[in-house]
Design goal:
CATH architecture of the largest domain: Alpha-Beta Barrel
Bound molecules: pyridoxal-5'-phosphate
Largest sheet: 9 strands, mixed
Structural class: alpha/beta
Helix content: 25-40%
CATH topology of the largest domain: TIM Barrel
């Protein structure tokens, strides 16, 4: 997508808006797929961006889906995923969610605890069927280079390695479940190919260890992934050539030993991160205590990652004033969002071409963990719109929330005036 398409898109649908480049999305997916042997399946993680049209586009190239709620499961199905190409995980699965997954006979429900294993067994019995499951293991190993580690330390994910290895015999004896294999997801935004490799090698060895110990006939291993993208200065992109050189022999050797085992890699950020940008509009420009602030209509509420929420050191996502003329001079700005919070800053001391009122600023590298992981209801602003630019067409793929969308969810109590006054 080019700048004029983005300007046309926001002129038509307004700001704040997420704008996606469909061609880039497909290229990212294909690049990852091509760096892996054919027999490795890539499961797109909907938590990263669950828009049905984007999932549908990925599905058109064969992407499978990893979901973390029954709603994500329904989106995956709507986008054309078959139950056989869905894995469902997450530390808190409600009864109705598990029952839906069991009834659909999805490829695997990833079990995060022994209690959950028992619940799935009970529900499968109740539904007179056998549930396909995998056991999520929190290994004694953490992925190097990941800013957020899900494994190798105390977390609410999976069953710790030693306990799982010791108790696998009991798991295998659980009725009404078919344990297909294991799942490990260890970290996110890893930029070193060697780190993904070491992590994967560890998981494949763990699989081998359990298979040898219990002589079980597994048919799946989900090695997670965590492949990242560079957001900040001095970060280098994951080297796909190196990734391929390391991963292909590793998986090939495993596949020769276990040809019936489906190998799954999960990926979200790598596939969609570079394919999206957030467009916001300058609503005010002002000097305050010596700094120049650009107040925009989308900040932490739409994009908490860009505001650095959860990070001690806040660094700027790449940003551009796409309304400025090429030759406009640059200034240093503090770019804020619309919230009454001093932390609502998406650009700190950022150098941009001169910003004028109503200019459109683009926050790049924003396709992953955007509004879905932001407090979109703060100040009741609601979810921003989402626009897809693909094959020269500009299509709205999510309407911005309007006041009624938010207000109608609230329930107005009909207090009896006198009672309230009297008590
Ligand atoms: C279990 C699991 N799978 C997949 C993902 C997606 O990870 P990424 O965006 O790093 O590819 C996550 C992210 O937290 C996750 O927890």
């Amino acid at each position: 997508m080019n700048k004029s398409q983005i300007v046309a898109a926001v002129n038509k649908y307004g700001t704040p808006a997420y704008v996606y480049d469909g061609a880039q999305l497909l290229t990212n997916y294909t690049n990852l797929k091509n760096a892996l042997p054919d027999f490795v399946d890539v499961f797109y993680a909907l938590k990263v961006n669950p828009n049905v049209s984007l999932v549908k586009l990925l599905r058109s190239k064969g992407a499978c889906t990893e979901v973390c709620s029954v709603t994500e499961m329904e989106i995956a199905l709507k986008a054309g995923s078959t139950p056989q190409d869905i894995v469902y995980l997450g530390p808190c699965k409600k009864d109705y969610e598990l029952k839906r997954a069991i009834s659909l006979q999805i490829f695997a429900i990833v079990i995060e605890s022994e209690i959950e294993l028992q619940r799935v067994s009970n529900f499968a019995k109740e539904l007179n069927t056998v549930a396909n499951i995998a056991i999520r293991i929190n290994p004694d190993f953490s992925a190097e280079g990941s800013p957020w580690k899900m494994g190798g330390r105390p977390t609410h994910f999976g069953i710790e390695e030693q306990r799982a290895v010791e108790n696998f015999g009991k798991y295998l004896a659980t009725p009404y479940v078919n344990i297909k294999g294991i799942h490990v997801y260890n970290g996110t935004n890893i930029l070193e190919a060697s780190s993904v490799f070491e992590n994967t090698r560890y998981i494949l060895k763990l699989y081998d260890k359990i298979v040898q110990k219990y002589q079980c006939k597994f048919t799946m291993v989900d090695v997670g992934g965590g492949m990242g993208i560079p957001y900040f200065q001095n970060q280098e992109a994951l080297h796909l050539g190196e990734f391929k050189d390391l991963m292909v022999p590793l998986f090939t050797e495993f596949n020769e030993k276990y040809p019936r085992t489906r190998i799954i890699m999960e990926s979200g950020r790598f596939i969609i991160g570079t394919a999206g940008a957030m467009a916001v509009q300058a609503n005010n420009i002002k000097v305050n205590h010596g700094k120049t602030f650009v107040v925009t209509d989308g900040g932490t509420n739409c994009h908490s990652a860009a505001a650095g929420s959860g990070r001690v050191v806040k660094r700027n996502f790449p940003m551009e004033n796409i309304s400025a003329h090429e030759t406009a001079e640059t200034h240093t700005y503090q770019v804020s969002g619309p919230l009454c919070s001093p932390d609502d800053i998406i650009g700190r001391n950022i150098v941009l071409q001169e910003v004028k009122l109503n200019d459109i600023l683009l926050v790049k590298l924003s396709g992953a963990y955007g509004p879905t992981s932001s407090p979109v209801l703060f100040h009741s602003h609601g979810y921003p719109s989402e626009i897809l630019i693909y094959q020269n067409e500009i299509q709205l793929i999510r309407e911005k929330d309007c006041a009624a969308d938010i207000i109608n969810k609230q329930i107005e109590v009909d207090f009896k005036k006198n009672e309230l006054i009297n008590h």
